Structures are given as structure tokens and as C-alpha cells.
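Usage

Read records sequentially. Each one opens with the input sequence:
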Amino acid sequence: MSDILPFLRIGADGDLLPWSAQLAASQRFQKSLAEVEDLALNLDLLDMEFHEISL
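and closes with the structure output:
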């Protein structure tokens, strides 16, 4: 799991993680998109307001 965190940080565009990077992380690390989204939220790479809208 520790390899996914740097992968997400590298894939970030500033302080936001694009959908393409989320999808790539999901596929590469065999995680669900929800798991990747939770990790990105914990790294402050997704806006919580956006997350609430997408639910």
C-alpha cells in the first residue's frame, strides 16, 4: 500500500488528483476507485466538497 501514496502524489496536478490518475492508481494497485478516492482525500488531493457531490 505504501507505493500507492507516492504514485498519487506524483499524479496530482497541484493539490488536486485528476480522474485519469485515480483510474491509473486503481488499475495499477488493484484498488477500487472508492479506495483510491479515500486515500486521495486523506492526502488532501481531492476537494471534500467535490467528494460529497459525487456521492
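Summary fields computed downstream for this record:
- The chain has one domain: 4-54.
- The CA atoms of residues 9 and 43 lie 8 Å apart.
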